[in-house]
What we know:
Number of helices: 7
Structural class: alpha/beta
Distance between the termini: 33 Å
Bound molecules: cytidine-5'-triphosphate, calcium ion
Number of strands: 12
Largest sheet: 8 strands, mixed
Strand order of the largest sheet: 5-4-1-6-9-10-11-12
Helix content: 25-40%
Order of helices and strands: HEEEHEHEHEEEHEHEEEH
Radius of gyration: 18 Å
Amino acid sequence: ALALLAPQDLAGRAVVVSAGGTREPIDPVRFLGNRSSGRQGAALAAEAAARGAQVVLVAANISADVLVVARHPQVEVRPVGTAAELGDAMRDAAASADVVIMAAAVADYRPAAAADQKLTKEDGVLDRIDLVENEDVVAGLAAARRPDQIVVAFAAETLADPDARRERARRKRDRKGVDLLVVNRADAEHGFENAHNAVEVVGDGGSIVAEGSGSKRDVASLIWDAVLNLSQQRST
Ligand code: CTP
Ligand code: CA
């Protein structure tokens, strides 16, 4: 019944959402990871499907209780582990997508080599791990996008000062070459493991095109509204 009440303003659109956090193996029992639960990305997928979109959810290490939020006949889940796997899955799905939203937290670096046996203190190597930088997945997607495709990145931000936060967001949006950058407050009350979220959406020229807070589903709705606004502006 809820789906019937949702506006079908994403009907006919193919969208790709990445969510969760990548894990970069150190050895068979250890990894470098982060605290992203995948809740905001799962809410974005669920909201898009409810509004009529065909959705691919590229899910990096999302637990079953979070993934259940995105259960919908129009959501196809593609699980991935590492940043490299996420990059491959995103390029594949983005090829036929109208909108790409990169909500996953991607490890900036990975261990230069993953040991095939569990490392021990006896080995004397656990106190230092050589790292190499991962590819910037969303910057690559933005550089390769078709003129009609919209690419959205996320940035978790712990800066409380609004001016400093926005200035950093503008630079990050330019660096990534994305259409929209969603700045996600990552303090004690917002983001990551919390049910509530507060965001600012940065668009052309670094302007704030939308902002708001609420449940992750409320925030998802606000983000899709901003995407549709941009898409309408571009087609007129
Ligand atoms: N991202 C990506 N590939 C990476 C790192 C980040 O696609 N290797 C994406 C994230 O999914 C997110 C956006 O880039 O959508 C911003 O991530 P963030 O970590 O804030 O940006 P970085 O460029 O890694 O900058 P920072 O040094 O602040 O971590
Ligand atoms: Ca980063």
